[in-house]
User: Fold this.
Amino acid sequence: MKAIHLLYDDLPDTLITPVELRHKRVEVVLMEVESAGRLRGLKDWIASMPDVGDDSIFARQTDAGREDVRWDT
Assistant:
């Protein structure tokens, strides 16, 4: 896996796609970096989310479409 981390002090109106990632499946995460430095990255941002709700809503659903693979045993 190749990762590219870019930090902009002033985000431009358009972003240029790196040549090596064009026409590939990618994930793009845009996150404002707070000037106070309270949240330093994606991991801190996720950790700051409140712990509410039932974790079972994130459980893997039974895969009924593929008979040769069994995900939930």
Notes: The helical segments are 42-47.
